[in-house]
Amino acid sequence: MNDKQTQRRSGSDDRRTVERLVAAWLEETERHDRAAARAARAGWERGALSERAAQDLATWVTARITDTGFTEDEGPYVEGPVRITPADKDTVHDWLRARGHSV
Protein backbone atom coordinates (compact mmCIF):
# COMPACT_ATOMS: atom_id res chain seq x y z
CA MET A 1 0.00 0.00 0.00
CA ASN A 2 1.42 3.41 -0.91
CA ASP A 3 1.28 6.60 1.17
CA LYS A 4 -1.80 7.96 -0.62
CA GLN A 5 -3.73 4.74 -0.02
CA THR A 6 -2.69 4.75 3.63
CA GLN A 7 -3.77 8.38 4.03
CA ARG A 8 -7.09 7.71 2.31
CA ARG A 9 -7.76 4.67 4.51
CA SER A 10 -6.67 6.56 7.60
CA GLY A 11 -8.87 9.51 6.63
CA SER A 12 -11.93 7.30 6.24
CA ASP A 13 -11.15 5.53 9.53
CA ASP A 14 -10.84 8.92 11.21
CA ARG A 15 -14.12 10.08 9.69
CA ARG A 16 -15.91 6.97 10.99
CA THR A 17 -14.48 7.61 14.47
CA VAL A 18 -15.63 11.22 14.39
CA GLU A 19 -19.09 10.27 13.12
CA ARG A 20 -19.48 7.61 15.83
CA LEU A 21 -18.47 9.97 18.61
CA VAL A 22 -20.42 12.96 17.32
CA ALA A 23 -23.56 10.79 17.27
CA ALA A 24 -22.99 9.80 20.92
CA TRP A 25 -22.21 13.40 21.89
CA LEU A 26 -25.35 14.72 20.19
CA GLU A 27 -27.47 12.04 21.86
CA GLU A 28 -26.12 12.93 25.30
CA THR A 29 -26.40 16.66 24.66
CA GLU A 30 -30.02 16.17 23.58
CA ARG A 31 -30.83 14.75 27.03
CA HIS A 32 -29.37 17.76 28.82
CA ASP A 33 -29.78 20.77 26.52
CA ARG A 34 -32.13 20.32 23.58
CA ALA A 35 -31.47 23.76 22.12
CA ALA A 36 -27.69 23.25 22.12
CA ALA A 37 -28.11 19.79 20.62
CA ARG A 38 -30.41 21.11 17.89
CA ALA A 39 -27.92 23.88 16.99
CA ALA A 40 -24.97 21.47 17.05
CA ARG A 41 -26.83 18.90 14.92
CA ALA A 42 -27.72 21.57 12.36
CA GLY A 43 -24.07 22.63 12.19
CA TRP A 44 -22.90 19.02 11.89
CA GLU A 45 -25.36 18.36 9.06
CA ARG A 46 -24.13 21.51 7.25
CA GLY A 47 -20.57 20.37 7.76
CA ALA A 48 -19.57 23.26 9.99
CA LEU A 49 -19.81 23.12 13.77
CA SER A 50 -19.93 26.45 15.56
CA GLU A 51 -16.92 27.28 17.72
CA ARG A 52 -19.00 26.67 20.85
CA ALA A 53 -20.15 23.26 19.59
CA ALA A 54 -16.58 22.36 18.60
CA GLN A 55 -15.31 23.25 22.07
CA ASP A 56 -18.14 21.31 23.70
CA LEU A 57 -17.33 18.26 21.56
CA ALA A 58 -13.61 18.51 22.36
CA THR A 59 -14.32 18.75 26.08
CA TRP A 60 -16.91 15.97 25.97
CA VAL A 61 -14.67 13.48 24.16
CA THR A 62 -11.82 14.20 26.59
CA ALA A 63 -14.05 13.74 29.62
CA ARG A 64 -15.65 10.57 28.26
CA ILE A 65 -12.55 8.48 27.56
CA THR A 66 -13.66 5.00 28.59
CA ASP A 67 -10.76 2.86 27.46
CA THR A 68 -7.69 4.14 29.27
CA GLY A 69 -5.47 1.32 28.10
CA PHE A 70 -4.81 0.30 31.69
CA THR A 71 -5.37 -3.21 32.89
CA GLU A 72 -7.78 -3.83 35.72
CA ASP A 73 -4.88 -3.77 38.17
CA GLU A 74 -3.42 -0.52 36.77
CA GLY A 75 -6.40 1.74 36.70
CA PRO A 76 -10.12 2.21 36.43
CA TYR A 77 -12.40 1.34 33.56
CA VAL A 78 -14.81 4.20 33.00
CA GLU A 79 -18.36 3.11 32.21
CA GLY A 80 -19.85 4.82 29.18
CA PRO A 81 -22.33 4.39 26.32
CA VAL A 82 -19.55 4.16 23.71
CA ARG A 83 -15.95 3.03 23.80
CA ILE A 84 -13.63 6.04 23.57
CA THR A 85 -9.87 5.61 23.59
CA PRO A 86 -7.22 8.31 24.01
CA ALA A 87 -6.48 7.82 20.29
CA ASP A 88 -10.18 8.49 19.52
CA LYS A 89 -9.92 11.73 21.50
CA ASP A 90 -6.83 12.72 19.53
CA THR A 91 -8.63 11.92 16.27
CA VAL A 92 -11.57 14.16 17.18
CA HIS A 93 -9.27 16.97 18.33
CA ASP A 94 -7.19 16.70 15.13
CA TRP A 95 -10.37 16.68 13.04
CA LEU A 96 -11.60 19.83 14.79
CA ARG A 97 -8.24 21.57 14.36
CA ALA A 98 -8.21 20.68 10.66
CA ARG A 99 -11.48 22.59 10.38
CA GLY A 100 -10.06 25.71 12.00
CA HIS A 101 -11.18 25.21 15.59
CA SER A 102 -8.81 25.91 18.44
CA VAL A 103 -8.70 22.87 20.69
Keywords:
103 residues, mainly alpha, 4 helices, 67% helix
Topology:
Blueprint lengths: L2 H30 L1 H13 L4 H13 L22 H13 L5
Helix pairs in contact: 1-2, 1-4, 3-4
Task: Produce a short descriptive summary.
With 103 residues, this protein is mainly alpha-helical. It is built from 4 helices and no strands. It is globular, with a radius of gyration of 15 Å.
How would you explain this protein's 3D organization?
With 103 residues, the chain is mostly helical. It has 4 helices and no strands. The longest helix is centred in the first third of the chain and has 30 residues, at 3-32. It is globular and about 40 Å long. The model has no long low-confidence stretch (mean pLDDT 85).
Shape: globular
Can you summarize the main beta sheet? none
According to DSSP, the number of beta strands is: 0
The pLDDT mean sits at: 85
Radius of gyration: 15 Å
Tell me the β content: under 5%
Contiguous low-pLDDT stretches (5 residues minimum) are none
Class inferred from helices and paired strands? mainly alpha
Measured as a percent range, the helix fraction is 55-70%
**What is the count of helical runs?**
4
In whole angstroms, the N-to-C terminal distance is 32 Å
Could you spell the SSE succession in H and E letters?
A: HHHH
